[in-house]
Amino acid sequence: MTRETLAETLEDIALLLELKGENPFKIRAYRMGAETVMQFPGDIVTRAREDDLKGIKGIGDALQQKLHELATTGKLEFYEKLRAEFPTGLFELFRIQGLGPKKIKALYDSLGVDSLARLKDLCHSGEVAALAGFGKKTAEKILEAIAFREFNAERFRLGDVVAPVEEILTSLKEHPDCLRAEVAGSYRRAKETVHDVDFLVATGNAVEIIEYFVSHSRVTSVIAKGPTKASVYLADGLQCDLRAVSNAEFACALAYFTGSKEHNVAMRGLALSRGYTLNEYRLAPREGSDSPEAPVFESEAQLHRFLGLDYIAPELRENTGEVEAAAEGALPRLIELENLRGTFHNHTVASDGRNTLGEMAAAAMEHGLQYLGIADHSKSSFQANGLDEKRLREQIAEIRELNRGYQSEGTKFRLFAGSEVDILKDGSLDFDDELLGELDYVVASVHNAMTMPEAEMTARLIKAVTHPKVTMLGHLTGRLLLERDPYAVDLPAVIEACAESGTVIELNCNPWRLDMDWRWWKYAVERGVKCAINPDAHRTTQLDYLWFGVRLARKGWLTRADVINTLDLAAMEEYLNLEPIR
Fold first, then answer.
1. Mean pLDDT per 10-residue section of the chain, whose length is 582 residues
2. Are residues 43 and 79 in the same domain?
3. Do 112 and 231 have their domain in common?
4. In whole angstroms, how far apart are CA 436 and each of 389, 397, 402, 431?
5. Backbone angles phi, psi at 39, to 5 degrees
6. Parent domain of 226
7. For a designed S-S bond to 177, which of 205, 283, 432, 471 qualifies (C-beta 3.0 to 4.6 A apart)?
8. Looking at 328, 360, 386, which one is the last position of a domain?
9. Is 502 within the bounds of a domain?
10. Hey, which residues does 180 pair with through a beta bridge?
11. Coil, strand or helix at 230
């Protein structure tokens, strides 16, 4: 049981109650409960299991009982009965971009839409377009969203699989017959989305390990089970595969099952050129070769050295030049999580965040950060309670006051006063230059009009990033992984504009975004563009997203020197042309 499961269950209950037309206050109570569960600073799952939720604001008596039942039994009778009132296929509609509870209710009540297949048919037939409140354009957008969903049906965001994957890995490592265990595949390479997850275990008792794996509490069904490998499904449909090998085979197997197909082809080619064959179990002399027997490798690093390579980090194994660089001793020293000294682009209750300035600052200090940039939304993002000029100036004053308090206490920490300023359709910014000049830094981002033609969108972004008051560009392509495609934009042109103006490009490490895409960072760095790893945190717990940011930065070949928020506080104040707090 995880925090996410508790919150998702409450959210689903709210949706179902809305479909039933229940009391809006009751619906709101479940939504508030879900938010409280997600932002609670302590171990909410243990508190729920121990029936110790009394006094937590946002979780009343009824929710306390339900969360306790869910945490202790893994099920909630109220939720199961509520789900049973609706066709199973109806729940597929919840995952379609642009379909909220009101639209789903209208489709269900008026047209009997109870599955994606039926919705698709009725969109094609014109019946959805004829429904009051919909229209032809809405029907077309629904069809586009369904097609996008179907295309990505068997993929999962990296952020969504971390909890179950790490839990299963930990349990495997704790098994007495496990000598070593690791996750391989695209998960270990830090791909932004994964199709399935590969586990590898070194053991002398494969049968016992396989049986243990398929009986894990996360497993809902077994696809296949043999003496050395097994495949299972988890509750959300994620396929997990386990392969058991001997300890002597583990290093070669880990290298093989981690690398992309293209990387493995390059590695096999390198081995052949040296008189060896490389497969998932071993490196052996090629038939007819006079090459000596290879040693038993204790680690991937030893295997790489034997082949004349520096160690290649898992994130790089995509055949984008890493094998050649490793042979030449030219691999970069990749950034590490502990290199970060602060971060930017974080929200508070002033806009659509869930924590106060003080709470966000305290959480940042608990993470060992020396500074935190606050960038609440600007006024045009009305849907996110964006700040107007008066409210932003009040926030700037509050930040200054908090900083004076940290200074007087002798605390080496600073809040930077920023804003996530909307880039308007014509490329101008949401605030005038006078107000922008009062900020410590500015994040410029697109939040609307995302369907503009590529040339217009590119011009829009270039105008914004070349504005002298803009420090960094937020979530460059606007993508939401598995939910929304990037908008049309000429990335090289925008990157070149940022290089010329000295504008930083954000690596937004919210796992729904991970934007700018890792595939563009080498290109950007070659042109002199700096990166800022930003969590886009809307609550204190989302500062943990920095972990995803560092993984994706490594995948983009980024070093400590490429990322501005590895600078310490004094260096960052100098970078932003700010005076130290007196």
1. 84 88 90 87 88 91 94 92 88 81 87 90 93 91 85 86 95 97 98 96 97 95 95 91 97 98 97 95 91 95 98 98 98 98 96 92 97 97 94 98 95 97 97 98 96 97 98 97 92 98 98 97 98 96 96 98 98 97 80
2. yes
3. no
4. 10, 14, 20, 7
5. -100, 0
6. 156-245
7. 205
8. 328
9. yes
10. 202
11. strand
Report d(CA 95, CA 504) in Å as an integer: 34
Answer yes or no: are the C-beta atoms of 181 and 167 closer than 8 Å.
no
Compute φ and ψ for 151, nearest 5 degrees. Answer: -65, -35
Of 182, 190, 320, which is closest to residue 257 (Cα–Cα)? 182
The CATH number that applies at residue 268 is 3.30.210.10
From 124, 95, 96, 98, select the one nearest 111 (Cα to Cα): 124
Element housing 146 (H / E): helix 136-151
Whether 421 and 468 map to the same domain: the answer is: yes
Q: 513 and 373: one domain?
A: yes
Per the CB < 8 A criterion, the answer to whether 395 and 387 are in contact is yes
- In angstroms, the Cα distances linking 299 to 212, 295, 296, 311, 327 are 25, 11, 9, 10, 18
Encoded amino acid at 117, one letter = A
d(CA 441, CA 431): 13
Q: Do residue 220 and residue 314 come from a single domain? A: no
- Claim to verify: residue 72 and residue 177 sit in the same structural domain: no
Residue environment code for 477-508, b if the CB has 16+ CB neighbours within 10 A, otherwise e? bbbebbbbebbebbbeebbbbbbebebbbbbb
| Identity of the residue numbered 110 | S
Does residue 580 lie within any of the structural domains?
no
C-alpha distances out from residue 448 to 124, 255, 390, Å: 28, 44, 23
Q: Give the H/E segment covering residue 3.
A: helix 3-20
Cα(321)–Cα(112) distance, integer angstroms: 54
DSSP 329-398: T----B--GGG--EE--B--TTTT-SS-HHHHHHHHHHTT-SEEEE--BBTT-GGGT-B-HHHHHHHHHH
Q: How many domains does the chain have?
A: 4
**Nearest C-alpha neighbor of 440 from the set 418, 468, 472:** 418
For the chain, how big is the Rg over CA atoms in Å? 26
Instruction: Look up residue 487 and give its DSSP letter.
Output: P
3-state secondary structure 56-118: CCCCCHHHHHHHHHHHHHCCCHHHHHHHHCCCHHHHHHHHCCCCCHHHHHHHHHHHCCCCHHH
Rounded-to-integer distance, Cα 102 and Cα 329, Å:
59
Domain boundary among 184, 214, 245: 245
CA distances from residue 21 to 104, 113, 129, 245 in whole angstroms, order as listed: 12, 17, 23, 55
**223 and 262 inside one domain:** no
- Which pLDDT does position 42 carry in this prediction? 77
Residue 41 is part of a domain; what is its CATH number? 1.10.150.110
CA 321 vs. chain centroid, Å, equals 25
**CA distance between the termini of the chain:** 48
Is residue 151, in this structure, part of any structural domain at all?
no
Beta strands in 165-291 (DSSP E): 178-183, 193-194, 196-203, 219-225, 229-234, 239-245, 276-278, 283-285
Closest to 26 measured CA to CA, from 69, 60, 54, 77: 60
* Position 250 in a domain: no
